[in-house]
Write a structure and sequence with these properties.
This protein is α+β, with helices and mostly antiparallel strands. It has a single domain, classed as Alpha-D-Glucose-1,6-Bisphosphate, Chain A, domain 4 (2-Layer Sandwich). Helices cover 38% and strands 32% of the residues. The chain is built from seven helices and eight strands. Strands 1-2-8-7-6-5-4-3 form an eight-stranded antiparallel sheet. Helix 4 crosses helix 7 and helix 6 packs antiparallel against helix 7.
Length: 211
């Protein structure tokens, strides 16, 4: 599969929720991989394998342990039930959100459901919408898919690839589909589409230090 086929293989949903008495937005991504559940589980939980498709990780990858992805978020492992369920906090930028990954057999494939729930920051939500986290996870799901297909290490350059024609097409599709899901959850269409453009600009602009 090429990257555009990967992004089109994802089903996206946005829900409004509540946690600790405060409103949340829940971004849900679902797709299937042509791999055994044990192989997908290993790719998701092995400190040696995670850098091959996502990011280097340090810390204690056990229930109650704290982990940290290099240059990204960290958190606490809350549930780890092999080979079907991972729950962690997802902490970065002074904010705490919650990540859940579910795996299940699906014929000769493995179905993966990723659920990311965060408290609503009204200003941030209006500017970027759920695509802010959703499009980021699309990139991770792409990396995982390419890795499971070929065994390659970091198959795409996370810094320069988004600015290529193929990368722009990938991110445009993902951002538009998260906007569609957000509108289905009740967000004003004009607001959702404006957020799409902000998200797209964020993910397809190379940081100055990398250019």
């Amino acid at each position: 599969m090429n990257p555009l086929e990967h992004v089109k293989a994802v089903t996206r949903e946005v829900r409004t929720g509540e946690r600790d008495g405060k409103p949340t937005k829940i971004a849900i991504a679902h797709r299937s991989y042509p791999a055994e559940p044990g192989d997908v589980w290993d790719a998701l939980t092995s400190a040696e394998r995670l850098p091959r498709w996502f990011l280097p990780v340090s810390g204690d990858l056990r229930v109650g342990g704290r982990y940290q992805f290099e240059g990204n978020a960290g958190g606490v492992v809350e549930t780890c039930r092999q080979p079907e369920l991972i729950k962690t906090t997802w902490e970065g930028g002074g904010q705490v959100s919650w990540l859940e990954i579910r795996l299940s057999p699906e014929g000769e494939q493995t179905a993966l459901e990723l659920i990311h729930e965060a408290h609503v920051d009204p200003e941030f939500a209006k500017q970027y919408g759920p695509g802010a986290v959703g499009v980021g996870w699309d990139g991770a799901l792409l990396g995982l898919g390419l890795h499971l297909e070929s065994g390659a290490d970091r198959p795409v350059d996370a810094f320069t690839w988004p600015t290529t024609p193929e990368g722009l097409e990938f991110h445009r599709y993902a951002a538009d589909d998260w906007a569609r899901a957000d509108i289905a959850d009740g967000t004003d269409p004009a607001e959702a589409r404006a957020a799409t453009e902000a998200v797209l600009a964020f993910y397809t602009t190379v940081p100055e230090e990398q250019s």
